[in-house]
Amino acid sequence: MSNVIHLNVPAQRQSAAARRSALIASFAQHRRFGDDVFWLKENAELLNILECTGARLDDQALIPHDGFYAGVEKRLGFFPQYYRFLLSICLDLEDLGMTGNKAEALCAWVAREGLADAELSDLQRAEARRLMQRRGIDPMAGDPGLENRLRAFIGRSDTFSMPNKKAAYELTHIVFYLSEYGRKDPALDQSAITSLEFAGILAYLDQNADLLAEICVALRFAGVEPSAIWEGWLERETHRFAVTSGPNVTTSDNYHDYFVCNWLMSVSGRDSFVKPAEHERMSFARAVPFSGPLREMSECMFQMEENRSDDWTIMRPMVEDALTEIGYDILSEAQKSSEKFADFFAGFARTGLRGVTL
User: Fold this and answer.
1) Could you tell me the CA-to-CA distances from 160 to 1, 125, 169, 309, 333 in Å, in that order?
2) What is the C-alpha to C-alpha distance for residues 195 and 202, in angstroms, rounded to an integer?
3) Residue 43: beta bridge partners?
């Protein structure tokens, strides 16, 4: 009788390129389908992150998008309202290595049709301009004031000392467009940097990893080192994501948080998209975070009415006393994370209507 020795050989680790290929395949073929606007959104976001970070892909990685690329002009002709998504995906596919040169002709068609002129917001016009300028076309050449209006918006720091997620996301995206997603210095003035700092403090107090990751990316695109407290927390949150696969996993998930947290990991020189990925339907769940103290702080300040002050040294004991133990700890970290915390609080207190005769 012989002795049988069993060797526990660990499974071969998935390479970074293989993980990216699996991500591309999952989002292109297994979560949603091509005529769904959410398919367009998810795939545009993933490909944009891969393209702007210079991700290296396997030769076959883009094959799942062959069908989309073959018919993109038909989709654009029938769904012109989605032209920004369609152009973004087409541009990124070509710039990531797909053979073809459709994007230039599609940009020219969009410009001739004046689709950017139908946009209501400067943010959307800025995105349209950024996309088409990648092929040498400026659809907003007749609007020389566009950039000045964008810079005026991000330079009003008071806007970002109060909870307003829509404004904060617009702030980050304006920086993305001005910097061409990290390809050039966006030349932000100090007021715009302060706006990013204020928005970052709010996002940290709210424990909003999605928004804070975008803010940290925007700061890095502006040549500013983000708070080590913010980025350290985001790195831990990134590793806490759970990725599951199978035909029945939900797509009502935290995929966007997963994308932008890993985008920050790449931009900051850390390992990104390290979770194993499968060529099938996947779902991305963020670990349940601690409840941030932002709401408790707002309620405390609101209840004080005329007794509240914009001086943090005066208000600090009363605000801290209104928080849970976890909220107190998060607030303490938020104070350490930015030298501008007292300036932020002066706006957050919202004492501006005092002295106004109504």
Assistant:
1) 76, 22, 10, 19, 19
2) 11
3) none
Q: What percent of the chain has pLDDT over 70?
A: 95
**Which of 332, 319, 244 has its CA nearest to residue 285?**
244
Q: d(Cα 254, Cα 245) in Å, to the nearest integer?
A: 14
The predicted structure's pLDDT at residue 35: 80
Tokens of 274: 């390290």
Entry pTM: 0.94
Residue corresponding to tokens 């991305």: 284
Q: Give the residues across from 282 on adjacent strands.
A: 245
Return the half-sphere exposure (C-beta side, CA atoms, 13 A cut-off) of residue 263.
29
Q: At what angle do helices 146-155 and 190-205 cross, to 10 degrees?
A: 50
Helix axes 255-267, 37-52, angle to 10 degrees: 10
Pairing of strands 242-245, 282-285: antiparallel
285 beta partners: 242
At 126-185, the pLDDT tens digits run 999 999 999 999 999 999 999 999 999 999 999 999 999 999 999 999 999 999 999 999
Q: Which of 44, 50, 31 is nearest to 262 (CA)?
A: 50
Q: Where are the domains of the chain?
A: 15-144, 145-289, 292-341
Residue 14 Cα to chain centre, angstroms: 26
